[in-house]
């Protein structure tokens, strides 16, 4: 029986002139564009995990929704030739602060993008759809 891996992600956003901007980060190894995400931690609410990952990976903080915005699946590379299906539950993070220095600043790039560009930049179709749906609801 295969076990589905589960991660928790944040969709960091700000609203400028009535238009949301989405913060994406690159992965450390392949430099693909993604949202900040990570594994559950014992005793920590899932939304807090997502918020902490956004701080560590993108240097952003703010108000995280306690309600799951949506989820998507992707193939997680485990090592050279092994992959597993991973489901990411995503929480919206309304950003009110971005640091100039943060834990993973030298390992990742970040970009603030309009939703259409953010959806086009990510490679996971489910994440792209989630970004597009969020932008539609947010505006």
From TrEMBL:
Q: State the needed cofactors, names only.
A: Mg(2+)
Asked if the Swiss-Prot or TrEMBL record annotates the protein with the keyword Signal, the reply is no
Q: Which SUPFAM superfamilies match?
A: Nudix
Q: Which keywords does this Swiss-Prot/TrEMBL entry list?
A: Hydrolase, Magnesium, Metal-binding
* Domain of life (superkingdom): Bacteria
Any one GO cellular component localisation term in the record: cytoplasm
Recorded GO MF terms: metal ion binding; pyrophosphatase activity
Tagged with keyword Metal-binding: yes
Q: Which InterPro entries match?
A: DDP-like_NUDIX, NUDIX_hydrolase-like_dom_sf
Which PANTHER family does this one have? DIPHOSPHOINOSITOL POLYPHOSPHATE PHOSPHOHYDROLASE (PTHR12629), DIPHOSPHOINOSITOL-POLYPHOSPHATE DIPHOSPHATASE (PTHR12629:SF0)
The protein here is known as NUDIX hydrolase
Name the lineage.
Bacteria, Pseudomonadati, Pseudomonadota, Alphaproteobacteria, Hyphomicrobiales
